[in-house]
Amino acid sequence: MMGNLKTEPALDRPDLLAAPVADALRSWAGGDRTEVAAIDPGLADTAAFCAEYGVRLDESANCVIVAGKREGVVRYAACLLLATTRADVNGVVRRHLGVRKLSFAPMDEAVALTGMEYGGITPIGLPPEWPILVDPRVLAAPSVVIGSGVRHGKLWLPGALAAELPHAEVVEGLARELG
């Protein structure tokens, strides 16, 4: 149980996962330690989800997709951070990716490139050339809720497991507390 969500093994419920997420979970060693819960798709956004399902903001992690250019090539990355924080996109993330300007990827572009639904994008199943930048606070959380690639599901996993995601890089200073 997470909040008042009934979770079950994610690999048993592919109907609650985007296709790239299901494929990635089947091939990732952490897939068997990841659970999923069905949710109301109208409540997929973090604040509404947490309020309805009794999940604290510090138990919910957001995955934001950023894009920047270097030498004419667009570079994408995912940032995984707790809902109580905000990514330092123009500082730490920009420097880490080695780009001059960085912004959040446009919604339609992020959806098309990931094969996931907006509001459900998750670090599991992203294109393999994209680094996944993880804030250390995520790893310190006993468990976190993240998207499942679709708006009608949420994944649950131990926070420390995020460091084991393919292409994950733990980045100190990635996020700052909201306040």
TrEMBL record:
InterPro entries annotated for this entry? YbaK/aa-tRNA-synt-asso_dom_sf (IPR036754), YbaK/aa-tRNA-synth-assoc-dom (IPR007214)
Question: Which Pfam families does the annotation name?
Answer: tRNA_edit
Domain called YbaK/aminoacyl-tRNA synthetase-associated: residue spans: 41-160
Q: Which protein, by its recorded name, is this?
A: Prolyl-tRNA editing enzyme YbaK/EbsC (Cys-tRNA(Pro) deacylase)
Sorted alphabetically, which CDD domains does this protein's record hold? PA2301
Q: Which residues form a coiled coil?
A: none
Which GO molecular function terms does the record list? aminoacyl-tRNA deacylase activity
